[in-house]
Amino acid sequence: MTALDMFPITRRWPPRDTRAIQLYSYPTPNGVKASIMLEETGLPYEAHTVDIGADDQFTPEFLSLNPNNKIPALIDPNGPDGAPLPLFESGAILIYLAEKTGHFLPTAPRARSEVLQWLMFQIGGVGPMFGQMGFFVAFGGKDVPDPTARIRYVAESTRLLRVLEARLEGREWICGDYSIADIAIAPWLRTLLGPYDAADLVGWHGFANLPGYLERFLARPAVRRGLLQPPKD
Questions:
Q1: pTM score
Q2: Which of these ranges, 1-15, 43-57, 218-232, has the smallest mean pLDDT?
Q3: Which residues form the GST N-terminal domain (predicted)?
Q4: b/e for 54-67, b at 16 or more Cβ within 10 A?
Q5: Same domain assignment for residues 75 and 115
Q6: R_g over Cα of the chain
Protein backbone atom coordinates (compact mmCIF):
# COMPACT_ATOMS: atom_id res chain seq x y z
CA MET A 1 0.00 0.00 0.00
CA THR A 2 1.26 3.48 -0.89
CA ALA A 3 0.38 6.97 0.31
CA LEU A 4 -1.45 7.59 -2.95
CA ASP A 5 -3.89 4.77 -2.27
CA MET A 6 -5.85 7.05 0.07
CA PHE A 7 -6.98 9.11 -2.93
CA PRO A 8 -10.00 7.62 -4.78
CA ILE A 9 -8.87 9.19 -8.05
CA THR A 10 -5.93 6.78 -8.22
CA ARG A 11 -8.36 3.88 -8.59
CA ARG A 12 -9.61 5.27 -11.89
CA TRP A 13 -6.23 6.56 -13.05
CA PRO A 14 -3.65 4.28 -11.38
CA PRO A 15 -0.12 5.66 -10.95
CA ARG A 16 2.77 3.86 -12.60
CA ASP A 17 5.40 5.56 -10.45
CA THR A 18 4.10 6.42 -6.99
CA ARG A 19 7.04 8.78 -6.43
CA ALA A 20 6.05 11.05 -9.35
CA ILE A 21 3.55 13.91 -9.31
CA GLN A 22 0.22 12.67 -10.61
CA LEU A 23 -1.37 15.15 -13.01
CA TYR A 24 -5.01 14.80 -14.04
CA SER A 25 -5.71 17.07 -16.96
CA TYR A 26 -6.55 17.63 -20.61
CA PRO A 27 -4.68 19.81 -23.15
CA THR A 28 -6.86 22.92 -22.87
CA PRO A 29 -5.42 26.41 -22.23
CA ASN A 30 -5.90 25.89 -18.49
CA GLY A 31 -4.80 22.28 -18.54
CA VAL A 32 -1.47 22.88 -20.24
CA LYS A 33 -0.46 25.47 -17.66
CA ALA A 34 0.30 22.61 -15.27
CA SER A 35 2.02 20.35 -17.80
CA ILE A 36 4.17 23.19 -19.14
CA MET A 37 5.20 24.16 -15.62
CA LEU A 38 6.08 20.56 -14.82
CA GLU A 39 8.15 20.32 -17.99
CA GLU A 40 9.86 23.64 -17.30
CA THR A 41 10.83 22.66 -13.77
CA GLY A 42 11.87 19.12 -14.63
CA LEU A 43 9.82 17.57 -11.84
CA PRO A 44 8.96 13.92 -12.51
CA TYR A 45 5.28 13.53 -13.26
CA GLU A 46 2.71 11.28 -14.85
CA ALA A 47 -0.05 12.84 -16.94
CA HIS A 48 -3.44 11.15 -16.84
CA THR A 49 -5.99 12.10 -19.48
CA VAL A 50 -9.26 13.37 -18.02
CA ASP A 51 -11.41 13.37 -21.14
CA ILE A 52 -13.64 16.39 -20.67
CA GLY A 53 -15.51 15.52 -23.87
CA ALA A 54 -16.57 12.29 -22.20
CA ASP A 55 -17.41 14.06 -18.89
CA ASP A 56 -14.59 12.36 -16.98
CA GLN A 57 -14.42 15.49 -14.83
CA PHE A 58 -17.84 14.67 -13.37
CA THR A 59 -16.92 11.18 -12.21
CA PRO A 60 -16.87 10.55 -8.45
CA GLU A 61 -13.16 9.78 -8.60
CA PHE A 62 -12.25 13.12 -10.16
CA LEU A 63 -14.66 15.04 -7.93
CA SER A 64 -12.93 13.52 -4.91
CA LEU A 65 -9.87 15.56 -5.90
CA ASN A 66 -11.56 18.65 -7.31
CA PRO A 67 -15.17 19.20 -6.22
CA ASN A 68 -15.41 21.99 -8.81
CA ASN A 69 -15.06 19.46 -11.66
CA LYS A 70 -12.38 21.42 -13.53
CA ILE A 71 -9.01 20.37 -14.87
CA PRO A 72 -6.15 20.47 -14.04
CA ALA A 73 -5.68 18.84 -10.66
CA LEU A 74 -2.73 16.97 -9.23
CA ILE A 75 -1.31 15.07 -6.30
CA ASP A 76 2.25 15.63 -5.19
CA PRO A 77 3.25 12.47 -3.29
CA ASN A 78 6.13 14.40 -1.73
CA GLY A 79 4.33 17.47 -0.49
CA PRO A 80 5.10 19.59 2.57
CA ASP A 81 6.65 17.53 5.37
CA GLY A 82 6.83 14.60 2.97
CA ALA A 83 3.08 13.98 3.03
CA PRO A 84 1.01 13.84 -0.19
CA LEU A 85 -0.61 17.11 -1.21
CA PRO A 86 -3.70 17.30 -3.47
CA LEU A 87 -4.19 20.48 -5.48
CA PHE A 88 -6.74 21.95 -7.86
CA GLU A 89 -7.06 25.35 -9.62
CA SER A 90 -4.40 26.07 -12.22
CA GLY A 91 -3.17 29.26 -10.58
CA ALA A 92 -2.71 27.57 -7.23
CA ILE A 93 -0.84 24.74 -8.95
CA LEU A 94 1.53 27.19 -10.66
CA ILE A 95 2.29 28.98 -7.41
CA TYR A 96 2.84 25.72 -5.54
CA LEU A 97 5.20 24.28 -8.15
CA ALA A 98 7.11 27.56 -8.38
CA GLU A 99 7.60 27.63 -4.61
CA LYS A 100 8.48 23.94 -4.50
CA THR A 101 11.23 24.33 -7.08
CA GLY A 102 12.31 27.94 -6.63
CA HIS A 103 11.68 28.69 -10.31
CA PHE A 104 9.58 31.23 -12.22
CA LEU A 105 8.31 33.16 -9.18
CA PRO A 106 10.67 35.69 -7.58
CA THR A 107 11.15 35.66 -3.83
CA ALA A 108 11.78 39.41 -3.53
CA PRO A 109 8.45 40.86 -2.37
CA ARG A 110 8.15 43.59 -5.01
CA ALA A 111 8.99 41.32 -7.95
CA ARG A 112 6.86 38.51 -6.53
CA SER A 113 3.82 40.75 -6.19
CA GLU A 114 4.25 41.89 -9.79
CA VAL A 115 4.20 38.32 -11.12
CA LEU A 116 1.21 37.42 -8.96
CA GLN A 117 -0.73 40.45 -10.20
CA TRP A 118 -0.31 39.37 -13.81
CA LEU A 119 -1.14 35.78 -12.93
CA MET A 120 -4.40 37.03 -11.42
CA PHE A 121 -4.95 39.18 -14.52
CA GLN A 122 -5.07 35.95 -16.52
CA ILE A 123 -7.19 34.04 -14.02
CA GLY A 124 -9.76 36.80 -13.55
CA GLY A 125 -9.68 38.37 -16.99
CA VAL A 126 -8.03 36.65 -19.92
CA GLY A 127 -9.25 33.13 -19.18
CA PRO A 128 -12.93 33.89 -18.52
CA MET A 129 -13.28 36.51 -21.26
CA PHE A 130 -11.44 34.56 -23.94
CA GLY A 131 -13.38 31.45 -22.98
CA GLN A 132 -16.71 33.21 -23.36
CA MET A 133 -15.61 34.73 -26.64
CA GLY A 134 -14.62 31.30 -27.91
CA PHE A 135 -18.02 29.91 -26.97
CA PHE A 136 -19.89 32.62 -28.87
CA VAL A 137 -17.52 32.72 -31.83
CA ALA A 138 -16.53 29.11 -32.45
CA PHE A 139 -18.71 26.76 -30.40
CA GLY A 140 -22.33 26.40 -29.27
CA GLY A 141 -22.98 30.10 -28.85
CA LYS A 142 -22.15 30.96 -32.45
CA ASP A 143 -25.68 29.97 -33.47
CA VAL A 144 -27.36 32.35 -31.00
CA PRO A 145 -29.20 34.93 -33.13
CA ASP A 146 -28.72 37.84 -30.73
CA PRO A 147 -25.15 39.17 -31.34
CA THR A 148 -24.94 41.06 -28.04
CA ALA A 149 -22.84 38.49 -26.18
CA ARG A 150 -20.54 37.90 -29.11
CA ILE A 151 -19.91 41.63 -29.52
CA ARG A 152 -19.30 42.08 -25.80
CA TYR A 153 -16.77 39.28 -25.42
CA VAL A 154 -14.88 40.11 -28.60
CA ALA A 155 -14.61 43.72 -27.43
CA GLU A 156 -13.46 42.77 -23.94
CA SER A 157 -10.93 40.25 -25.27
CA THR A 158 -9.57 42.92 -27.59
CA ARG A 159 -9.26 45.34 -24.68
CA LEU A 160 -7.31 42.77 -22.66
CA LEU A 161 -4.99 42.22 -25.60
CA ARG A 162 -4.31 45.96 -25.69
CA VAL A 163 -3.35 45.81 -22.02
CA LEU A 164 -0.90 42.99 -22.74
CA GLU A 165 0.43 44.74 -25.83
CA ALA A 166 1.27 47.83 -23.77
CA ARG A 167 2.80 45.74 -21.01
CA LEU A 168 5.14 44.00 -23.46
CA GLU A 169 6.54 47.22 -24.85
CA GLY A 170 10.28 46.95 -24.25
CA ARG A 171 9.91 43.59 -22.49
CA GLU A 172 10.60 40.06 -23.66
CA TRP A 173 8.30 38.57 -21.03
CA ILE A 174 5.37 39.94 -19.03
CA CYS A 175 7.43 40.66 -15.91
CA GLY A 176 10.87 40.97 -17.47
CA ASP A 177 12.03 37.45 -16.67
CA TYR A 178 10.08 34.39 -17.77
CA SER A 179 7.60 33.49 -15.03
CA ILE A 180 4.39 31.71 -14.14
CA ALA A 181 2.57 34.79 -15.46
CA ASP A 182 3.75 33.87 -18.96
CA ILE A 183 2.91 30.20 -18.45
CA ALA A 184 -0.63 31.27 -17.52
CA ILE A 185 -1.20 33.92 -20.20
CA ALA A 186 0.42 32.63 -23.38
CA PRO A 187 -1.61 29.41 -23.78
CA TRP A 188 -4.75 31.54 -23.94
CA LEU A 189 -3.27 33.73 -26.67
CA ARG A 190 -2.70 30.57 -28.67
CA THR A 191 -6.46 29.91 -28.78
CA LEU A 192 -6.97 32.99 -30.94
CA LEU A 193 -5.01 31.36 -33.74
CA GLY A 194 -6.25 27.84 -33.10
CA PRO A 195 -9.63 26.59 -31.91
CA TYR A 196 -11.31 30.01 -31.77
CA ASP A 197 -9.98 31.22 -35.14
CA ALA A 198 -10.50 34.74 -33.83
CA ALA A 199 -7.29 36.48 -34.88
CA ASP A 200 -9.04 38.79 -37.33
CA LEU A 201 -11.86 39.56 -34.92
CA VAL A 202 -9.48 40.87 -32.26
CA GLY A 203 -7.01 42.49 -34.65
CA TRP A 204 -4.19 40.12 -33.71
CA HIS A 205 -2.00 40.94 -36.70
CA GLY A 206 -2.16 44.64 -35.95
CA PHE A 207 -0.33 44.25 -32.64
CA ALA A 208 3.41 44.93 -32.66
CA ASN A 209 4.45 42.98 -29.55
CA LEU A 210 2.01 40.13 -29.00
CA PRO A 211 2.79 37.90 -32.02
CA GLY A 212 6.51 37.86 -31.23
CA TYR A 213 5.79 37.17 -27.58
CA LEU A 214 3.69 34.14 -28.44
CA GLU A 215 6.35 32.91 -30.88
CA ARG A 216 9.02 33.12 -28.16
CA PHE A 217 6.81 31.19 -25.80
CA LEU A 218 6.01 28.44 -28.29
CA ALA A 219 9.69 28.11 -29.20
CA ARG A 220 10.62 26.92 -25.70
CA PRO A 221 11.26 23.15 -25.72
CA ALA A 222 9.46 22.63 -22.41
CA VAL A 223 6.42 24.46 -23.74
CA ARG A 224 6.31 22.28 -26.85
CA ARG A 225 6.45 19.16 -24.70
CA GLY A 226 3.89 20.44 -22.20
CA LEU A 227 1.38 21.29 -24.90
CA LEU A 228 1.17 17.60 -25.72
CA GLN A 229 0.43 16.48 -22.14
CA PRO A 230 -1.63 14.66 -21.29
CA PRO A 231 -2.22 13.06 -24.67
CA LYS A 232 -5.75 13.05 -26.02
CA ASP A 233 -7.13 9.51 -26.01
A1: 0.97
A2: 1-15
A3: 18-105
A4: eebbeeebbebbbe
A5: no
A6: 18
